[in-house]
Every structure is written in C-alpha cells, then in structure tokens.
Amino acid sequence: MSILLDENSIIIVQGLTGSEGSKHAARMLRSGSRIVGGVNPRKAGTQVEIEGTSLPIFGTVADAMAETGATVSVIFVPPAFAKDAVIEAVDAGIPLAVVITEGIPVKDSAEFWAHANNHGNKTRIIGPNCPGVISPGKSNAGIIPATITDAGPIGLVSKSGTLTYQMMFELRDIGISTAVGIGGDPIIGTTHIDALAAFEADPETKAIVMIGEIGGDAEERAADFIQKNVTKPVVAYVAGFTAPEGKTMGHAGAIVSGGSGTAQGKKEALEAAGVRVGKTPTETANLMREVIQAL
Hints:
It is a single chain. The chain has helices at about 20-30, 60-70, 80-90, 105-120, 160-170, 190-200, 220-230, 265-270, 280-295, and strands spanning about 10-15, 35-40, 45-50, 55-60, 70-75, 95-100, 125, 130-135, 140, 150-160, 175-180, 205-215, 235-240, 275-280. Strand 10 (about 150-160), helix 5 and strand 11 form a beta-alpha-beta unit. The strands form 2 sheets. A 7-stranded mixed beta sheet has the order 3-4-2-1-5-6-7, with helices on both faces. The longest helix is centred in the N-terminal third of the chain and has 14 residues, at about 80-90. The mean pLDDT is about 95. The protein is globular. The chain is of the alpha/beta class.
C-alpha cells in the first residue's frame, strides 16, 4: 500500500502550459502517473501534447474534475497567482493539492491554509515549496525523480527536497512505500505529524525515516507525537548542525533565533522519544538498515 497516492490517482496540473508544469508533467507521465489534463483559464479548450499524449486544458479545477474524475492537482502556478490557484482547488473539493511553487508569500500561504481549514480540510495540501509525493511504481505527483528507488517498506517524510532524493537513493536496496516532501516554508499544509500518522496506519509501511531541519518546533512536536502515537520504528536526520544563529539557511523556515530551533535541541527531543538520529544522511540510512534487519 501507500499513503496519499496510488495507481488509481488521477492527476491534473495547474500550470501545465508553463515551462515547469510541462517539463515535470512529462517526467510524471514517464514514471507511470495518470495525468489527464491541465488548468489554465486563458487557454481553456485547447490541447497540449506531452510525451505523445494529448492533454486537454480546462478553464477551472472544477471543470477538470467534472470531466476527468481527477483526485489530485499538482500546482506549478507562479508565486503571485499561487494563492488563487490553491483556493480554486480547495473550492472544487479536490482531495489532494500538491503545491510545488517556491517563493509564495507567507501571508498567502496562511490565507489558503485557513481557507482549506474553513472548508473542513477536505483538500489535503502538500507544500508549498515542496518536491511533492511519490509512491514508487504507482504514481508520482511533483518533481521527485522516479528512477532512484523502487517500492519497499520504508515511509519517508522530509522538509528538504534534495535530502528526500538522497535518502531515497541511499535506501534503494530496501525501497520506499511513499516519500512525502512537505516543504520547508514557515506555513505548510501537511506536517511531519500528519505524515507520521498516515504511515502508522499503513500496513505496508514497516518503518519510517523523518528528515527535519533547523528552525521552528515542528520536529519537537513530531517527537512528542511519536512518543505517544507511533508504534513503528522511526529514524531521523536533522539538517543544520553547523548553521549560524540568526541566519536563514535555504528554506524560509530554517532560521535559528534566541537559542530555539537548533539541530541539537531537535536531536535531543527525538532521541528522548526513542528515535535514532543519524549525524549524516548516510548514517541515518545505515540506522534504518539495522532497523529493517531486526524486524
């Protein structure tokens, strides 16, 4: 099994006619994803040819869902228009919206997150500023390379896109059930805790890798959740042990201030919850190998 995505997921791309949307849609199609169309109100009624497949362009997400039965939208809309795109997806009631766009103002993210919450969270938002979700061999919604690992029993949730790819590759000999890149912005739709809960409920996921980074208290809250609610083994890696205080490192949410949000503090909280924490991605992967061998 997998979480969030499977071989039955039907995907549309908001921003399919743009350069990033079309490029990554081609990669998703090559990996076996069921992409059935795109959304661009200015080009509604046209078709685009991607990977030998003619895909219709709809004026709205609601129209696309009505015509295709879409269950997932992957959003490549530029930052200035991303809030409206997410709100449109929420209003249409699509079950999963994967927001790849980087550089969305925090105020906009807060507004579309609140809008989804006010609508009963019927739409699960992944991101923004994330690589997306992949269930190897089944479906791929986003920009995660599909050729670096096969299906397996390990669930992966990560703030970092590149570390998602590295961990998938490091554990390619075992395989991944689903990898979820939740994004590193200060406000995101799906958290570590959300993914941990889904992996805990998935009978095919036997163990979980969690990748965090400096800034905020998401990893500390995840540690508390793991201690109280997760029975499966979890290993973790926290990026940013050498980051200077007060300086944003990569992600907008990755900033240490006033002694809080440090990698060491997160490591200690996770270890107190029984999570084994690696000093490097490779060491973390080796810890997971030990866990899998002991199961």
